[in-house]
User: Fold these one by one.
Assistant:
Number 1:
Amino acid sequence: MIVFEEKDDRFYISASKIVGAGRGVFAARDILAGEYMPITGVLVERGSESDRTTCFLDRYKFASEIKVENNKIELGNYLICPLGYGALVNHTNSRRKQNVEIRYVDESLFGSKAVYWFIRDVFRFEEILGNYGPCGHSLENTKNNPVKLFRPFLKKK
């Protein structure tokens, strides 16, 4: 068994201000545009038995990496089942309210990793809100497994 602990003191969980959303993630301090929240979770191979037995997470799973080559999108073999703060970032359709987007940061030692990238400054006590794509889905990968598609890789300088 692996023990998971969320220790990022920049965030806390509270009741979302979005009606019907349940809980959400909030800033415990001011956060500057360009900072990011690592998305922790479990990787499962797309279409595998592990993917099928975690079907209760299907609406939260998304591609662990995205490559765009010759105008073709490659999603990789794995899906992220998010845990911790990254699992509780709520959706908004409002570009004005959205303060994060998922990006894939190129880490030279470990390949890419998915993060919630802050696209604007966020103030203490503000809810962290992203956009999951049109109507919460943006790419149908398999018949029964919609996969969310977000931003392409961001090269770390």
Number 2:
Amino acid sequence: MRSPHLARCAALLICALLIGCGENAAPAFRGDAERGRLLYYGELAPLDVNSNAPRCIDCHPDSVGGQPAIMGNNLSNIGNRAAVTVPEQDAITYLREAILDPDKYLAGGFQEGIHYREYGQILSDQDVDDLIAYMLSLKSGVDE
């Protein structure tokens, strides 16, 4: 017959191990795609018309057959491409780096130094998460 004390100790040990496993887990991603769309189009501060920063849409079309890309890639299918653009990198990490450190990986043969570099100083972490959520929703299936 097992002692109740031993059973309790085993249960506490299992709980401690489960809690400890979560310490290295990535924080939950909490982006709001609709708010991200408003940022992308410059309809929301800090990327609104009063900002010196370019709106995402100024360089990156987000629809198929829309305006031609002025400087950047068409992002109408970025929700499908982001997870496979950089080997062994998930979509959220790739998009975060593309926004905050745009020269780290140059997609589509673009040159270093073209992308606006100050988004990391004007966008909050939540702004970046919201932009990422919007971009992940762009899944046209067509790469232009």
Number 3:
Amino acid sequence: MERRRTLVRRAGLAGVALIVLAGATACEGIGPVGPSPAATVNGHDISSADVRDVVRAQRVLVVATQKDEEKQRAAAVKAEAQNPTGQAVPSAQDLAAQHRSQLAAFDGTGSDAISTGAASSALTPLVLVQIYADAVHETGGKVTDAQRTTARADVTKQLTDLGLKAADLSKVFVDAYVELNALQAALVAERPASAAEQPLSDAEYTKQLQAIYQSQRSSLTQLCADLIVAPNEAAGTAARKRLDAGEDFAAVAADVSQDPTAASGGKNCIALTNADAALGKGASTASKGDLFGPFDSGAGDGTVYLAKVDRIETPTFEDSRAQLEQANPNTQGADAKQAADDAFVQAKVDAAAARAKVTIDPRYGTWDPGSPSTGGSAGRPAQVLPPVDPGATSAAFTTDDGATTATSSVPASAGS
């Protein structure tokens, strides 16, 4: 029985080759040849079926991400219309064109074909799982159940944020990213922590907050005033004349204000540094009893305010502590710890990638072990590089792959 041959199909995106999978049957009662792996990493085979499942999952993820970007664009357009800031927002047409370009790399990713660009991208995390596992083994570490549970929760949340469930994607894809997160956590757990990364002691933290309080003391000072909310400028001007004539502020407020309760207690406080902008020139140096207004309330309904300074007060350190702690949490060394964690993980993964024994089916591309960062320059990540587009000088070849026959466009010298 003659093998079935299928011509190479091209995706909509120029230069993206396809691996085409066509159905095949056994010949003369002989069963199909065993499946050939898409890659082998340190003796561990990665099947073509797994790569295909990851590609499909990646496409689902791209579509969900695009929908999220469309929602963000619509929200940005609405926000810009309500409060113009000059922020550039892409047009719906431009965003749609960008999305079509992204999905073009997945053209033909049905049951019979996957693009080689998408395939190499999907194969990379599957290879990296084995690289990370070797890095963990080299440190003497081990992934714990707790780390896998946390990793799965993190991946699930990321999917939920995009409106997806784990069941919407292939198990191979979800498990790969859960394992990558868990392996990274296992690597971090093996790094010795330094004293510089520990939080400050309670006494040291209090001292730090006190220093911040002193540096911000002037900005914490508030001007508190009683208010009259007059219905319009004319009413506000008339109320001001009565106050200047010596009438009691509370009495005028009870007679004029649309919110009589605003005239008692001096609960309307603003930062003293903003007083001039809010109440007018001279407010930042005002004293108890000084009058300001009428001025536009900013409510857009024509109402105006009159203000009588009740007090100028600076909160104590203890009064301000909760606010200071919120703005300045005790995370001394957190940035240093994150940087050290990242550097430790990257160094271990770089070393594991360099020593890894990786074989890639040439239809899926070639393995690039990457390069470590040196002298402040970023390194090159370890990854599967897609095959070079063969262009016009190509020939089709057919190989058995389990119950399928795979046909791909490759350089003429690679097969017949």
